[in-house]
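Key idea: predict the complex, not the pieces.
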Amino acid sequence: VTVSELSERALVHLVQQRLSAPPRWMVVGIGDDAAVIEPERNRLQAITVDAIVDGVHFDRRFTPPDAIGHRALAVNLSDLAAMGAEPRYALISMALPADLLLADFEAIVDGLVRLSSSYHVSTVGGNVTRTPGPLMIDVTAAGVVKRRSVLTRSGARPGDVVFVTGTIGGAAAGLEMLRGGVPEAAPACVERYLRPSARVRAGLLIGRNRAASSCVDLSDGLADGVARIAEASGVGIVLDRTALPIEPSARTWWESRGDAVVDRAISGGDDYELLLTVRPRLLRHLEAVSRHGGVALTRIGVCTPGRSLVLRSPDGAEAPVPAGFTHFR
Amino acid sequence: VTVSELSERALVHLVQQRLSAPPRWMVVGIGDDAAVIEPERNRLQAITVDAIVDGVHFDRRFTPPDAIGHRALAVNLSDLAAMGAEPRYALISMALPADLLLADFEAIVDGLVRLSSSYHVSTVGGNVTRTPGPLMIDVTAAGVVKRRSVLTRSGARPGDVVFVTGTIGGAAAGLEMLRGGVPEAAPACVERYLRPSARVRAGLLIGRNRAASSCVDLSDGLADGVARIAEASGVGIVLDRTALPIEPSARTWWESRGDAVVDRAISGGDDYELLLTVRPRLLRHLEAVSRHGGVALTRIGVCTPGRSLVLRSPDGAEAPVPAGFTHFR
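Result:
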């Protein structure tokens, strides 16, 4: 059975059945012309939209449907985390090819709903349309943040210390393994690509503790994230080549293939870690993040007065940071 | 020059250049991981998402690019109007085929920005991705509404009077003319299809004056709208066949072709008028809407205790309301 055998209304109904009870602040939920929400007092609202398209951001041939749903929401939760916001609700817009199996549609929704439940994110609205093209899921996600906790890209100053959460390179290596048909090479990397974690708790604590002068998420890789902060803040960044927390099984995979490990780890996208800068005198503010953020924090470099992005080796040799990952061309 | 020759960043920059100055409540705008907004005090937030896909909701062969942008936003403004909400901001997510001309991309954005400016709607965020499939624009739009002014679909009771704004059938006739290659047959109908007006002002006044017991927008036609209110409110509806405000040039067009005028006008989508029900004792609340809503209000029927949807002729003959327009199958 394919989705083309159901009406739009019946598909929306299948989604609705999977949602948990609406929260009290949801005045009007799915099923009317728009959702109506009561904003939280004394909080700002953070809101973002991101789309994933079959053949561009994932590939149905090797991405299980629940992982498609998971990824569609995770990329947005990661954006909210990078603003220091606590996620609250999402709107899900799906364009479905007529040959999509109904079971796959349901599994996509299950993946999405499972992730949203684990973060207490309510689906307040959405849209389903058919498309003569590829499967596409567009998620709008909103969260709340105190004014003093908002994290932007633009506050870094020369001398600020650069940190990254978790490990990098795992998702890029996992994608290579999926494409090469060897997902068993390092299941942790593959899982990292298929069902990324958004660093929601860490982002919240970074914002609350006013620890960071800037923050960005690594959707397009570390090299891209570094360039974004440098551009928005008007600083340069020197990264310590040996300090980078490269996912161990990704390192092993690239070494076994004779690939340039650091370049791959830095350029690869889809890590969804947070990159942040911290004033030296505020480093102690990171303690609570390290202790309760649910993810490691690694010091990987420093901001500089120039505008150059540099990778420094222990022997003092310097190389430019390779260009980041770009989805469009 | 096609969009594939620019980076995602360059395309986003083209959009940004076209936007007017950000409003004071926009704490962080386009260019960070998410937008940050200060919610309006003592107001609820209405939010909706809707997508338009080439080959499904429009056809690039006969829809000028500025009209594509206009329609993408108008469908959402119409949803907000049907909730009684005043539109405030939008997020624009676009999936672009590689062969889209850059000039067409710019014209799409211009159409979108022109309509948003005329309603003081700020674009606070968005996303651009390439797609191997058709052009798709997904707009999330949000507005504000007082709790006592929220309009839903579910408050109609037997005896309530049914009204519709403006005229119906024009967009459906216009689409037929475009498809048939005779847009000169009735330019008003064609314009109605290409660049629909959302009844924002009327929706606001209907909400503020607490005139309506239910309201819905006619994105999928009058027959569909009547069914939505009847279903959500648990009523039947009798429509007065001769009272329907059918667009005169659409009537002429269908008559000249020997088509069933009323059936066409009722079943055709894309009108984006508002359908509402009003308690008989509150009819005077509609005066302000008629006077200042910028659009005519026509009494077209009444809600009944049953659940049937009926079209009544002056001679008393009754026929079931034909099924509405459905986008999916």
